[in-house]
Amino acid sequence: MTDTLLEVCGLEISYGGIRAVKGIDLHIASGELVALIGSNGAGKTTTLKALAGLLHPARGKIQYANRSLINVVAHQRAAMGIALVPEGRGVFARMTVLENLLMGAYIRDDKSGIAIDLARMYELFPRLAERKDQLAGTLSGGEQQMVAMARALMGRPRLLMLDEPSMGLAPLMVQKIFEVIRDIAALGMSILLVEQNAKLALQVAQRGYVMESGEITLSGAATELLGSAAVQRAYLGA
Amino acid sequence: MEIFLQQIINGLVQGSVYALVALGYTMVYGILGLINFAHGEVVMIGAMLALSSLTVLLGLSVPPLLALLFSIILAMAGCMALGYTIERIAYRPLRHAPRLAPLITAIGVSIVLQNLAMMIWGREYHSFPQLIVNATHSLGGAVINDIQIIIFILALLIMAGLMAVVHRTRLGRAMRAVAENQHAAQLMGVDINRVISLTFMLGSALAAIAGLMVSANYGLAHYYMGFVLGLKAFTAAVLGGIGNLRGAMLGGLLLGLIESLGAGYIGDITGGFFGSNYQDVFAFLVLIVVLVFRPSGLLGERLAERA
User: Is A83 in contact with B174 (Cβ distance < 8 A)?
Assistant: First the structure.
């Protein structure tokens, strides 16, 4: 597997004395959209935080673009092209939409490239163009999700990790957000999508992992998982 | 009426110095949630460094304005190094400690710096050399001198410059991002330790200039001068809403005015029982009143992040 972008082996993360992630393996190929699904508290968010460098794993290996990430701190990982859109979005509420997007391009210094990407984001999310001078904290939840995603894309990441992008959004907004996820995946970006909404996630993903109480219990092609009796029973309400 | 105008002038000049120092408190608080009680001592060290440098240079018959320029740069550089060092050795190791620990450490740093300054510069008052012919001008019955005019205009320019840095530059955006959400800032690739160090250095550079202004205005410098000045500037920051830059500026100017008008009229109000030597009372009265009735300060309430 020469085109593996991210490879995680035996990742263990403890969190206030509790082993939240108990030795998981997963990998993402370049250009692949992978879903990580599971119920609340399964350890999905913890896993993403460890991949972004916000948490330090107790054990295990993280290999990204043929480099070990163990001693690489969060801001360096961002510079290496790893972006996380965190749960709850984490927009800078007291900064304008435009300033949020410019923060997304913090690691870049190609002014003309940044301007081009800014225009692209406004095309992708026309709503943000209308609100570019508004403080991000005054936007609706869906608009904030757009800001968070556009902000992450402004850094031109190689690996985009999305934590519960559908959480708390109206159905129409969820649809819009997932359209964008499909679009950017089609452009060849590698995406790791964490969702409680398993059906939605598996519909856009190529592969999926199912996580339960800190362990990966099932993995495979997204279509297979969608059809699997275990997934249907546990997450799809069938 | 002349007294009133005179106290307004004095208050604005003094208040602009408070504002510069208050900005240092409020920038650090905004980013770390820490009250850097050693900040007042940084002001004092800035004044002392400038004074020593001026004394040496003037002794070597360097032209006064050149000596002043060099001394300002030296004091700023020295204070920036000091601010960096304080954060690095006293506060960074306590970044994740309970909030009381860095607060106590801050007071400790303050005492250490005071004593260090006393060992280097002694206990006596140092008089600040006169560098320019300090002409006084009359203004509707009140007087204002050149040094006061320079202090006020320079302070306003520096504040405008700081606002431009914070709102228009990449570093300023990073500072605001770190102040609001350290995790999210890291995800954007911001090295938060670097931003925190730069914030301390920026605040310390302002403190150095403020120290020089105070000693030029009163013609004196003393190892203890940072203590009360620091407390008053802290009061100004709280009055404006700590963590808010515009608040620190507004709070500084207002506190200067309150103090100056209070000192000007305290004799009349109390029938001569208290004199203007009680002027320090006003700053701390303001602190108490603000903490009781509006702890978030005048501009302290900002919109909350939506879920």
Answer: no
Cβ within 8 Å, pair A93-B305: yes
Pairing of strands A67-68, A59-64: antiparallel
Annotate B173-208 with b (16+ C-beta within 10 A) or e (fewer).
bbbbbbbbbbebbbbbbbbbeebbbbbbbbbbbbbb
Which residue is associated with the tokens 């964008």? A180
From chain B, the residues in CB contact with A168 under 8 A are 307
Please tell me which residue, A28 or B280, carries the higher pLDDT value.
A28
In the CATH scheme, what is the code of domain B2-124+145-305?
1.10.3470
Task: Tell me which residue in B174, B186, B306 faces A54 most closely, judged by beta carbons.
Answer: B186
- State how beta strands B220-221 and B126-127 pair: antiparallel
Q: What is the pLDDT of residue B277?
A: 77
Q: Which 183-212 residues of chain B touch chain A by CB within 8 A?
A: 183-192
ipTM metric: 0.94
Q: Is B178 on the interface with A (CB under 8 A)?
A: no
B188/A95 Cβ within 8 A: no
Rounded Cα distance between A165 and A202, Å, is 14
Tokens representing residue A49 in the block: 């935080």
User: Which residue, among B171, B188, B246, would best test binding to A if mutated, counting the most A CBs under 10 Å from its CB?
Assistant: B188
Q: Which amino acid belongs to residue A63?
A: Q
pLDDT digits (tens, 9 = 90+) for A137-185: 999 999 999 999 999 999 999 999 999 999 989 999 999 999 999 999 9
| pLDDT for res B207 | 98
What count of Cα atoms within 13 Å lies in the side-chain half-sphere of residue A236? Answer: 17
d(CA A157, CA A104): 10
- Tell me the CA end-to-end span of chain B in Å, nearest whole number: 54
- Min mean pLDDT across A39-43, A113-117, B68-72 is at A39-43
How far apart are alpha carbons A66 and B156 in whole angstroms? 53
Q: Which of B193, B175, B149 is nearest to B29 (CA)?
A: B175
Contact list, B180 vs chain A (CB under 8 Å): 92-95
Q: Is B302 in the A-facing interface, judged by CB distances under 8 Å?
A: yes
Q: Could you state, in order of their start, the residue ranges of all structural domains in chain B?
A: 2-124+145-305
Q: How many CB atoms lie within 10 A of CB A146?
A: 27
Residue in the structure block whose two tokens are 């309400």: A237
Pairwise CB contact (< 8 Å): B187 & A106: no
Do A184 and A160 form a contact (C-beta atoms < 8 A)? yes
Q: Do B189 and A106 touch (CB under 8 A)?
A: yes
Residue B113 · residue B45 · CB < 8 Å: yes
Strand order, beta sheet including A207-212: A82-85, A159-163, A190-195, A33-37, A207-212, A215-221
